[in-house]
Write a structure and sequence with these properties.
45% of the residues lie in helices and 14% in strands. By secondary structure, it is of the alpha/beta class. Strands 12-11-13-14-10-15-16-17 form an 8-stranded mixed beta sheet, sandwiched between helices. Strands 1-2-4-3 form a 4-stranded antiparallel beta sheet. α4 packs parallel to α6.
Length: 786
């Protein structure tokens, strides 16, 4: 066993005797360390040579103490007599103790020394300690010390030749001691124990410095550890120790990695046991070669979703394609796919999912359908006495993937409703056969619509984190590692164990599905078969389980589900028509794209994504003095629409009476929060109510024309606050670049944030202090609305 500790050379460390694996430092180890340090000191090694000097100093001090007694009593003879008696008695006792086991010559020398000491002390006590007495003490004392020094010489030690090391100086223990555990290293005073070495990897237990270091400390220093061990970062695996001891970490150094090259997808990677109800999809091999990274799909009475985070080029889309293909191969899953970017994130999923929602409008239709399905499957479970969900071909589980989820959950029009629906699915969907998978490039709080409840709900299932450039991901997801420092390998990432489980938080590399070229993609859309081995081919080979045998699901999903393909084709036709008009010169590209003149097109209405008119050239200055304000027409009397549900009727009347904020509507109507959201959704779908701005609603046609600029400014300020709080960069340059405004307008926005206590005084670098944390963002935005 290699027991490597700081302070030892690499040779000493590798040739040290075996030692048990420590569980922290014991009392015996501490005492041994103290004794070793004591023996290494110079004064300990010279203790025998300095003994005569110490005896003479003690006698000289005793004589001065006797003279002090003379000064106090004034009777030199009495003090001298007392000194002689005391010293004589002490000499007799010492002689009796030390004479045993010694030769006659040594005993004679000992008696002579004691007699001389008693005599000198008696004379010094009576006559005083002057230079003559001091010289006599030194002469007699050092003369009698010569035999002692003859027997206790300072040895001339010849340096021993260093033994041949039992291990290579470039071994992991030696490099760890020299580069990682040394003073100034990333983990000072740590050491390795319990080596397990094979042809493909080396495993060790790392004993960290208790109370000073933890798994988070080690993970944050992963790149430095890899540098210190002279290996690539992807060849290092650090995990929590099986014992649960927070001061210990499991280290694996991979010598022959299974993830150095991409892992091609060779077919569905699924294990399902109908007897136990446990089903697992395998994403790819772990970096240390010990098993495959799991995605929990089914457990007893439940289906599970999760969250996937990965930046541009991280392999997120390929991972999702492989994940859903393996799920579909079970014959027990139907997949829904929503993409705010119109299906461009993964054409393979958008083309093969049972319900593909392209754009925010279609995604909202899909989410509302899932919300209804949650309700009616709950009714079904209650009616039939079911305690959870067991997948069957006739009643499959529904896995809804929302790609780039931050774009719908943070949408100014639909964000609140979408987040509320996702929260409900996340809380109760697993036992009703509905799983939600959120995917994003960011992984910050806006990824979850600013909802801690949604974040916690989806993370109860599965969490996969690939490389990302968002510096907030680690803190928001409470990760031990920093995903911004992961190697730039497509598909390389970590599975993150759910809190309270014994699953692994360890690096892996996902299986890779080949993509179609642009020409091949056009041919496939025209009706050709996809090339074998591509994501389109695999997904087409393993279709979804149909919902035809589940009448509850078909009825709950309703008309939007039945007409989903019609909406897609209508949107494609409309966009194709716009392209034809552009090419033929029938429309002006500049005028058509101008936010002031662009109408709501059919592609947006069908869900291909909404283009938000952004007030980049908005005049943020207050009107000049004397400028008359535009007249605000009095609202016309609006009749109550026919065919409203009771809840929608109450909400309509509350808005008509001037109650515009959602929270105030809840108070005025007595409805629950979810009841108000459903009623507002109904009214907005009918066109009776519009969203005036974030959190505020108004009757259709009842908005004063002069409010448009104010609403735009308010929304711009809200976006600016969210950017400053999430990035921590309160500078005009950042806001000007991210919001497409001028520097003057960005400065104006920062001034408004100072007035609303979002920003505080400038720090040493001249930039304002951000006073609002990410957890306080929602409250800050609500205060701004108020």
């Amino acid at each position: 066993m290699v027991h490597t500790k700081p302070g030892l050379t690499a040779v000493e460390a590798m040739t040290a005797p075996p030692a048990p694996a420590p569980m922290g430092r014991t009392v015996e180890q501490i005492r041994a360390d103290v004794e070793a340090r004591r023996r290494d000191r110079m004064r300990y090694r010279l203790r025998r040579q300095t003994a005569p000097h110490k005896v003479l100093v003690a006698m000289w001090s005793a004589a001065w103490l006797a003279r002090a007694a003379v000064w106090l009593t004034g009777d030199a003879e009495a003090v001298a007599a007392a000194t002689a008696g005391t010293a004589g008695l002490a000499a007799v006792i010492v002689a009796m103790v030390l004479r045993r086991g010694r030769t006659r010559r040594v005993r004679t020398w000992l008696y002579t020394c004691l007699a001389a000491a008693v005599t000198w002390l008696t004379v010094a006590a009576g006559n005083g300690v002057d230079w003559t007495m001091t010289a006599a003490l030194a002469g007699i004392g050092y003369g009698l010390a010569l035999p002692w020094w003859r027997e206790h010489r300072i040895p001339n030690v010849t340096p021993a030749t260093a033994p041949t090391p039992a291990f290579d100086l470039d071994s992991v223990p030696a490099l760890w001691a020299a580069n990682v555990a040394s003073r100034g290293g990333p983990l000072p005073e740590s050491y390795l124990t319990d080596p397990e070495i094979s042809a493909t990897k080396e495993r060790y237990n790392v004993q960290l410095r208790a109370g000073r270091q933890s798994i988070a400390t080690a993970m944050s220093a992963l790149t430095l550890i890899a540098s210190g061990l002279h290996v690539a970062q992807e060849d290092i695996v650090l995990e929590r120790h099986d014992s649960g001891d927070a001061s210990r970490v499991a280290l694996t150094v991979v010598r022959k990695s299974p993830i150095k090259i991409s892992q091609p997808y060779r077919g569905p990677q699924l294990a399902y046991d109908p007897a136990t109800g446990i089903g697992t999809v395998f994403l790819g091999p772990y970096a240390d070669g010990e098993g495959l990274a799991p995605w929990k799909l089914f457990s007893h009475n439940s289906i599970w979703g999760g969250v996937v985070v990965g930046g541009i080029g991280s392999g997120k889309s390929r991972l999702l394609e492989a994940l859903l293909c393996s799920m579909r191969a079970s014959g027990l899953v139907t997949t829904f796919y929503g993409d705010p970017q119109g299906g461009t994130s993964s054409d393979a999923l958008a083309s093969n999912a049972t319900w593909a929602a392209r754009g925010n409008e279609q995604i909202m239709a899909m989410l509302r359908g899932l919300d209804r399905l949650v309700y009616w499957r709950g009714i079904e479970n209650s009616a039939k006495g079911r305690s959870g969900f067991t997948p069957r071909p006739t009643r499959p589980g529904v896995v809804a993937v929302i790609d780039e989820c931050h774009m719908i959950l943070g949408d100014e029009v639909h964000g609140d409703e979408a987040t509320a629906i996702c929260e409900r699915i996340g809380r109760v969907g697993r036992k009703l056969g509905i799983a939600l998978v959120l995917a994003s490039q960011e992984g910050d709080l806006p990824t979850f619509g600013g909802s801690n409840a949604l974040r916690n709900a989806v993370r109860r299932g599965n969490t996969v984190v690939l490389r990302t450039t968002n510096t907030q991901t680690a803190s928001v997801l409470k990760l031990d590692f920093d995903p911004t420092l992961l190697p730039d390998l497509p598909g390389y990432g970590y599975t993150v164990a759910a809190i309270g489980t014994t699953e692994r938080t360890a690096p892996f590399r996902s299986y890779y599905l080949d993509e179609l070229t642009d020409d091949e993609l056009e041919d496939v859309h025209a009706g050709a078969n996809p090339r074998e081995g591509t994501s389109h081919w695999w997904l087409a080979r393993h279709p979804d389980a149909p919902l035809d045998g589940d009448p509850v699901a078909l009825r709950a999903l309703g008309t939007p589900y039945a007409e989903r393909n019609v909406a897609v084709e209508a949107a494609r036709a409309e966009l194709s028509g716009q392209l034809d008009d552009l090419i033929a010169g029938r429309i002006d590209a500049v005028e058509f794209a101008n936010p002031k003149t662009t109408p709501v097109d059919a592609g947006q209405a069908a869900g291909y994504g909404k283009v938000v008119a952004f007030p980049g050239a908005l005049n943020l200055q207050a009107p000049a003095a004397g400028t008359p304000a535009a007249a605000v027409p009095a609202p016309a009397t609006v009749a109550e629409p026919a065919g409203l549900t009771p809840a929608a009727r109450d909400v309509f009347q509350a808005i008509k009476a001037g109650t515009t904020r959602k929270g105030d509507i809840v108070t005025a109507t007595g409805l629950s929060d979810s009841g108000v959201i459903k009623a507002l959704s109904e009214l907005m779908a009918r066109g009776d109510v519009v969203k005036a701005r974030h959190g505020h609603y108004a009757l259709a046609g009842d908005q004063p024309a002069t409010d448009a600029a104010d609403i735009a400014v308010d929304e711009l300020l809200r976006q600016a606050v969210a950017l400053v709080v999430t990035t921590g960069i309160p500078t005009p340059a950042m806001l000007a670049r991210r919001l497409n405004v001028t520097t003057e307008q960005a400065t104006w926005l920062l001034d408004r944030m100072t007035e609303t206590d979002v920003l505080g005084p400038a720090g040493p670098d001249g930039t304002p202090t951000v006073l609002v944390t990410a957890d306080q963002l929602d409250k800050a935005l609500a205060d701004i609305d108020a």
